[in-house]
Amino acid sequence: MEKAIVLGATGGTGQAIVAELLARGVKVVAFGRSESKLKQLMIEHHATQQLTYKMGDIFEYKTIVEAAEDVDVMFQCANVQYQEMAEKLLLLGESVMKAADFLGKKIVIVDGIYVYGHQVDIGNENHPKQPHTKKGRIRVEFEKLVFNKKWKKAKPLIVRLPDYYGPTSQNSYLQPTLTGIAANKMSVFIGNLKTPREYVYLPDAAKMIVNIAEKNESYGENWNIPGLGLISGDEIIQMARDITGNRKIVIPLNKQVIRISGLFDSFMKEVVEIMYLTEEGFQLSGEKYENRIGPILATPYKKGLEETLRFLMSKRG
């Protein structure tokens, strides 16, 4: 891979993949709709010739085609807001796949685990996709669209991440907690503090995603990107307090609190149906990755949290 485009390059996952590609010497086109955010990304990477940016609309496939014409791989990291998922996700999928098919490109789709619904134990890529939520069903339709046989020249694959955290993270479940603790303020934790859950450190995820993308035989399949293992909210908060010295209260938000918040906030209203993820300790199996790609990359939680919190504190000046 000599050159790649990252769609949604200024988002949490997009930024991590941009950084990983640059670290490997790959030329990168950062694609997004906000010029100010794209320029900031250029500044953060010292505006090297290795990184360029193109503005465009993810829903207009022709703008993607113009930006991706001479790349080897497309990384699709753009997303839609929860409250817009029903109306926009499939339109996004149609646009990026149409562009990839027109150009005959490899395309890596970054997605999550809503497709599985209620989950038990450790799930591999063949785990039944029986979602009980609206978002899960839409994500299943999204997968069918990606792998639709109508695309004659595109070469897609899907990577699935659990909840994540890291310096570039923006909209994860853990973000309000870490942001508040880094700011030495009272904060909230979405879900049950006692339930062990899986998180992946975004720099680790980016490395594994690019490792998968580099192999021709990876395409046409689903791939899991597992985290280090299960950890409870209480354990995360204790580690964060040890790192920052912040002892202020962290308030857990259960489903009932989220439901009430949803009466006044359209985003929180949409969070209610996927609160089951905060109550079930489902893990993604990394067996396929280990067998075909290599060892799972798993930064210890304490180290990952320290790097994330130090970054958040530095951004506050």
From TrEMBL:
<protein>
    <submittedName>
        <fullName>SDR family NAD(P)-dependent oxidoreductase</fullName>
    </submittedName>
</protein>
<dbReference type="InterPro" id="IPR036291">
    <property type="entry name" value="NAD(P)-bd_dom_sf"/>
</dbReference>
<dbReference type="Pfam" id="PF01370">
    <property type="entry name" value="Epimerase"/>
</dbReference>
<dbReference type="InterPro" id="IPR001509">
    <property type="entry name" value="Epimerase_deHydtase"/>
</dbReference>
<feature type="domain" description="NAD-dependent epimerase/dehydratase">
    <location>
        <begin position="5"/>
        <end position="225"/>
    </location>
</feature>
<dbReference type="InterPro" id="IPR051783">
    <property type="entry name" value="NAD(P)-dependent_oxidoreduct"/>
</dbReference>
